[in-house]
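I am writing to request your help with a piece of structural work I have in hand. I am sending you one protein, given as its amino acid sequence and as whole-number tokens for its backbone shapes. Kindly check, if you would, that the fold set down in the tokens agrees with what the sequence suggests. You will find the record immediately after this paragraph:
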Amino acid sequence: MYRIGYPFWKQAAKLGVPLKLRIDVIRDDEASVFVATSDDLPGLVCEAPTMDDLVKEVNLAIGELLTLHLHARPQSRTVTDLRICAA
């Protein structure tokens, strides 16, 4: 597994190496949503009322963002590491 954001991650993805992505999740009590962001993948910001919905949104966004960054669909599945952060 190779982490997105490390040097040469795009080349590794194009060769079919499984990718790893760290995602930070916080709970916004004022808006009653969970918010996911990632320093590894620029542009990844999702929110949803439940964790299950958030995971679905994140997986959709990852696919779209990787296609944008790689100019093609990734060859392998991306493994996400969700970290719940205290707000």
